[in-house]
Amino acid sequence: MDPTPSPSSASPYDMVSGALADYIPRAGATAAAGRAASSGEHHAGGPSSGAGGETDGREQILGAVNLGPDLRITSCNLDAAPFAGVSVAPGAAFADLLPPSDVPTVTQRLQRVLNTQEAHVARVQRLRRDDGSELVVSMSILPAAPPQEGLTVSLIAMAKRLHLYASAAAIGTSLDIGETAQSLAQSLLAWGDVAAVDLDYAVWTGEAVTEQVQERIRLRRAALVPDRAWPEGYLTPGDNLPREASRLLAGAVMRDDIPQAIVIPDREAIERALDDPKLVRALVPGNLPVSVACIPLVVDGPQGTPGPIVLGVTEVWRRPECPFRDGELLDLQELVAKTARHVDLARQHQREHAQVLALQRRLLPRAGSDTIEVASVYEPTTPDSAGVGGDWVNSFPLPGDRTALVVGDVVGHGLGAAAAMGQLSMEARALLSAGLGPGEVLARLDETVTLLDDTDAGLAAGYSALGSTCCIAVYDPVEQRLVIANAGHLPPVLVHPDGPAKTIAAQPHPALGAEFVVREPFEVHEFAAPPGSLLVLYTDGLVEDPAVSIDEGIGRLTDMVRDVHPWDDLQQAARRVVAGLAPQGSLRDDVTLLLARMAGRRSRDTATWRLPARGDTATRARALASLLLRRWHTDDQARDSALLVISELVTNAVRFGTGPVTVRLVRSGNGLSCEVGDSGHGRPRLSRGELLDDSGRGLHVVHKLTTRWGVRWTDTGKAVWAELEA
To answer: The whole model's pTM is what?
Structure first.
């Protein structure tokens, strides 16, 4: 084959040959290689050995296959020696050349190049030989040169060194431990018939590997190629190696306390080393004669630790008539050594991913109450993304029988975003529980995000939380109303029990910490939420799609939640919505959804009285409450405690507050909640008074008789609440 075609040649094969001319051996090099082979330089295996049959003097050989638009072969040139045993017939499907497990992926790549006319260059690929063995090639897919249609697939039969470098580059493209191990096993297959990767438990869990304790080493099979039906008892990916096998493999590669590659040349020696038929079935692939090379995955130990750390062991199995040569073992050790660094990086990423995911799961809402039902779904992006995102959602009870529903989206991914997410979530919960309203809480979070971005805490660490969003809703089951404030977040959706669904699109407000904007107060909006209403909070990953506008995505969400019936299981409904809008495998960002179905508080379990601020108001409130508590069949001790608390709170409201006094009493389960509101803005404080000092005695009484009490700020003043056991 002439590697320098004439300029007038325009066939796809000639174009590929010309572009790769520097990589095609000259006739002299081929002849020299043939003379070297005939003079006694013996290669480890022929084309069908699975160890690769390329001649050592030949770096790589180019072949080409032309495909029509239907991905069937129209012509080919695979005459070079390394392609021996690869049967190619015009009219056959290109997929016939591939291992079955590779067909879907390669077909998708071929179709993409056909559709986009953009070349797909240099990916390591396997071809099937007629005898069932495989040939490793570098495959490029190019659109056919006009006026021809279809594709040209160039195949470079790769020598071991080229394969080594290409594999090392390909293996480092993922931070997923399983994918990294699978890529390594596929690359090792160029040296044998079967390749396996076994990793220590610490790698899977993301634990810090600080010392090598041989007795504690436990291995789990991470990858195994080729993919075929294996005998019963043989270890496949996901299986844990028996403890004895873990010790044997780890001990075999730790000779003189130094990790080294070892070779066991035949099956008899392998069975003597394992000394257990069960271990033989678990570790040796099949019953045929076989040899094995074991190469440790080694990284340097942390500073101050003695020597290197073994993360796992790789095994390459092949036929004993093709013994491993010293040069091959050096190549294997070099490839595995390069991969060990990627495995360690994947371990560290797994640890960070698990930490952030645990934090995110911790923030998910727990079970609702008898006044509200809550369901949530959180779906992270793929593990090899830059970490879990900053989406968070939460719901928790507030004093006075209310419930808070919060959703937020912190800018970025990884531990920086997770730390900011956790801080904002906990701060929002603390402030809401302390009695601040949604608008006031957002104002405090706005300040927090700005502080997080200062030189010491934010930019110096390479992370900024500016632009994070948050939406807070507070549900009052007695008044059956929602109070909502929004800081740059996507609008919630409210579905009324009679069917209509609408987005709560209040006047937009910038995100938290937004610069170069006029600082306006966060607006608070109030909505009716009768029993059966459904509130939908979500993050942008659920509704964003590059193919459609964000408004259309929100519209699709609105249509789906409108079909959630009051008798549907809410958690199943939430999963159904997520599956319909963001199916698995297509996630571009973290997906978070919260559904809250409001049940309200029954009117017979609550009462509210509005009384004038007069000297007899406490007596009037006590009389009204006494009648109600008797109707509720409250026992005498609980009734006396509740009446005394109400009397003290009303007395304080009349004495220190202004305007009318509002008294609210709620029965919930085995508890009572009473709340007294007035128009004053002073905060009642529990202080240590003198023995004969009457000031503050009422709050001490309230403190002794209640399980907890506090202050909630309202638009007209304040409300002091207290909770008692019924």
So the answer is: 0.57
